[in-house]
Amino acid sequence: MFLILQDFLGQAFCTLGEIVGSAGSRLEKPLTMGTVTMHPRGRRPTPAASNGGILGKKCGTIILLAEELGNCRDVATLQFCANKLDKKDFFGKSDPFMVFYRSNEDGTFTICHKTEVVRNTLNPVWAAFAIPVRALCNGDHDRAIKVEVYDWDRDGSHDFIGEFTTSYRELARGQSHFNVYEVVNPRKKMKKKKYLNSGTVTLLSFTVEAEHTFLDYIRGGTQLNFTVAIDFTASNGNPSQPTSLHYLSPFQLNAYSLALRAVGDIIQDYDSDKMFPALGFGAKVPPDGHVSHEFPLNGDASNPACCGIAGVLEAYQRSLRRVQLYGPTNFAPVVNHVARSAAMVLDGSQYFVLLIITDGVISDMAQTKEAIVNAAKLPMSIIIVGVGQAEFDAMVELDGDDIRISSRGKVAERDIVQFVPFRDYMSGGPGAGLSMAGLAREVLAEIPDQLLSYMKARGIKPTPIPPMSSETPPP
C-alpha cells in the first residue's frame, strides 16, 4: 500500500461571472494559504480551518480562462424550389409545403422546420429560412435529414406528395447537381413499375454564419451598467414598524434588501468598475422636504454611484433614516434618467440595466409607457421586482412578453421589461437560499436576449478577442 502526499499550494475563490466579465475572460487571482488537513479517506490534502497554516499568506497567482463552447452556434439560411410536383387538387394544381425532420439517436425523427404554403402551383419557390445548425442535425453533419412534401388542405388532411433524404454536409455544398432531389412517394413506387418520382426539389441557396451570443459581447468588452431605483412611497408602511416592507431588522434583511442582493450579486460581476448609481423615488427629501422621484441614495446628485452592492445597501439604509416616505409611485423619471445615459453610448460598448424595486400600482402609467417605448430604441433593459402582496396588473402590462406596449400610437421596438413578483420566490426557512437563486435566475433571464436584440437591430458585432500570448508570464 502506498500513500502519496501532495503539497497544498494555495486557494482562490471566484464566480464564473467574475471570469467571464474580466477583460478577455481572463481572470488573475492571488493564491492564499489556508490550513491543510488530510482528506477523510487519506487520498489528498484539503484546506481546512484548523491550526497549522498561515492564513492569508500569498502563494502566487492563478490565471483562470473561460471559453464558451462554439459547437453548433452556426445558423444556416436555405432556400428551395420544386419542379413538376404531383397535382393533388381536383379543381386546381397543388398547394405545396415542406416539412424537415432531424433524425434522432434511436432512429426516430423530430420535426425541426415547416416551410410556408405556396398556393396553386406545381413549381413552388419557397422563401429562404434560417435555422440553427444544432436544430437541423444536432451537430452531426452526416446525420440524415428527412424532408416530406405535402399538398396543403384547409381541413388539415394534407396530401402526401413524396419525400427525400439529405444531410447537412450535402446541403453545405450549396446550389449544384448534388442538391437536386427526387421527391418519391414509396406507395406509388410500389404500385407503379414505371414510376420515377413525384417531382424534384432543388436547393437554390445555402449560407451559414456564426450566431453571436451574449458572452461574445461581454468577452469583447461590452460593459453592463447597473442602476437601482427603490420605491420610497408611504404604501410600504412606516419603516420603524416590523410590518413595513422597509423595516430594518437587526436579524434579517427586508424584502428590498433581499431582492437587491439576489440580483446585484450576480450582475455586479459583469460591471468592471462595480460602481452602481442608486436612486429613490416617491419620498420627501431634505433639506426642503420636496417630493422627488429620482433622488440619489448617497445624497450626491452629481454622482449617485455607490461602490458595489454593499455600498448600495448601505446608502439605501441611510436614506430610510433621512427621507419621509410619501408618494405617488412614478416610474417615468428613473426610466428617463437611465435612458439619458444610454442615449449617449449607442455603439454597443455599454448596455444599461435598470432595476426597479416597488410595492405598488404605478401612478404615471401613460408617462411610463412613453418612456419605455422611447427607451426600447436604446441599449437598455428594465427589471421590475414587485415586493409585498399588492396586485401587480400594471407591471404585467409593462412586461411585453405577450403584447408589446405602445404609447401615442407607437409600438415599442423591443421588449425590454421583465417583471417578477418577489413573493413567488420567498419560501423562508431552509429553502430561502434556493428561492433567492430562483429569483435571480428569473429576473436576469431575459437580459441576454434583450442585449442581443439591440445589437442585432443595429448591426453591431462583438469586438473580436485578441489571441492570447503563448508566452508564460514570469513568476
UniProtKB/TrEMBL annotation:
One Pfam family matching this protein: Copine
Statement: the UniProt record of this protein carries the keyword Iron-sulfur: no
Signal peptide boundaries: none
Gene Ontology BP term (one): cellular response to calcium ion
Keyword Protein biosynthesis: no
C2 domain ranges (all copies): 58-181
A single GO cellular-component term on record: plasma membrane
UniProt-listed InterPro entries: C2_dom, C2_domain_sf, C2B_Copine, Copine, Copine_C, VWF_A, vWFA_dom_sf
Domain of life according to the entry: Eukaryota
GO molecular function: calcium-dependent phospholipid binding; metal ion binding
UniProt keyword terms in alphabetical order: Calcium, Metal-binding, Repeat
Family designation: Belongs to the copine family.
Protein name, UniProt field: Copine-5-like
UniProt organism field: Cyanistes caeruleus (Eurasian blue tit)
